[in-house]
Amino acid sequence: MKTKLSLLSAALLGASLMVMPAVSQAAIPLAVEGQALPSLAPMLEKTTPAVVAVAVSGTHVSKQRLPDAFRYFFGPNAPREQVQERPFKGLGSGVIIDAKKGYIVTNNHVIEGADEILIGLHDGREIEAKLIGTDAESDVALLQIEAKNLVALKRADSDELKVGDFAVAIGNPFGLGQTVTSGIVSAMGRSGLGIEMLENFIQTDAAINSGNSGGALVNLNGELIGINTAIVAPGGGNVGIGFAIPANMVNNLVDQLIEHGEVRRGVLGVSGRDLDSELAQGFGLDSQHGGFVNEVMPDSAADKAGIKAGDIIVSVNDKPIKSFQELRAKIGTMGAGAKVKLGLIRDGDEKTVTAVLGEASQQTETAAGAVHPMLAGATLENNKKGVEITEIAQGSPAAASGLLKGDIIVGVNRTRIEDLKELKAELKEQHGAVALKLLRGDNSLYLVLR
């Protein structure tokens, strides 16, 4: 079971925002045979002031579409949907990345829907924050506070991380106050978890629990290598498998949020799939790492760069990639207009091309893949009846799922949807298999996406 870090319940908000790091009471020797033991304390003294507690409050608004029969009984002026409001409170963590301007990075799911965001600093100050912008697909949010004497974390090059590197997680788990745990980088480039739309996680065994969302994952130099985001939690607590958004992805997103107040997502213009053993054998490759290109969209950045269907993309800016999902996440967090160097294999030969990313549009295949991985390869367009599939790439995940050109998506499970915005919002709330209600000609049917 894969679970996003949940916000704390309202009851936990009754606890004050403690600001002192947790201290173990175990008796640890200072030296063994006269040799001083290494300690993380000097590094933590410099880094912990940059990690803050984030307390939020707001109102959840849920809407349920009423059946057409309701208007039959109560008249044409009867409401079309039922609206319910429920107050909520929660706690999370955040990281100061710019001391002069007061910029703080956290997770989108920590502050989503909040009417008030309160920052608890290491020295005890509590300051209301301003929301600069968010990116729900990568689960990043940027806040800003006005305060003096702030401490910021320097950001490391997360592309340089290797499995086995030491990592330290700093956050505010369970409302206990600032807590530090340590471990190693367990894996890189984790994707396909169904946690976010764009996934390229650092996996770590440093203990991460509820409330650590938005906190810092740092290296032994005290540099930010990732933003703690999610855990695998079959029993509801830490089991040694946590995930963080790499610092380089955060950098790309933050720069766009500061400049534009939103993410202007870059688009390469390809549909594809992970390179598996069957494909690798067919192309005579030893490695099974990379993204296989099923189709190149006409006049797209990929088309202009000379990428062709059948190419296998193996690196981005000279950094190897493991999967098409990782490619999509890296490209999707770069801004429109960014230049990207792509390494690929074509007919057994290695090539390098440079692409200038286009800007995402609601009617591109890339946007369809961002809505749901199994919609990749489809071109989506708003229709009077719902969301129409106007084009579909042969061999794409969308085609494999059974979708056809001309299908109109009108519902997700039992919820009616009318446009791309509603489709995207509804699918974001679903985990596991979902049933799309389709209009196909004169017929209505359900198609299950897994």
UniProtKB/TrEMBL annotation:
PROSITE patterns reported in the protein's UniProt record: PDZ
Annotated signal sequence range: 1-26
Superkingdom assignment: Bacteria
SUPFAM superfamilies: PDZ domain-like, Trypsin-like serine proteases
GO BP field: proteolysis
Active site: H109, D139, S213
Binding-site positions, substrate: 109, 139, 211-213, 229-233, 268-272
Domain PDZ: 257-348, 377-442
GO MF annotations in UniProt: serine-type endopeptidase activity
Keywords, in A-Z order: Hydrolase, Protease, Repeat, Serine protease, Signal
InterPro entries the record matches: PDZ (IPR001478), PDZ_sf (IPR036034), Pept_S1C_Do (IPR011782), Peptidase_S1_PA (IPR009003), Peptidase_S1C (IPR001940)
Keyword NADP part of the UniProt annotation: no
Any single Pfam family the record assigns to this protein: PDZ
NCBIfam families noted in UniProt: degP_htrA_DO
Protein's recorded name: Protease Do
Organism: Shewanella loihica (strain ATCC BAA-1088 / PV-4)
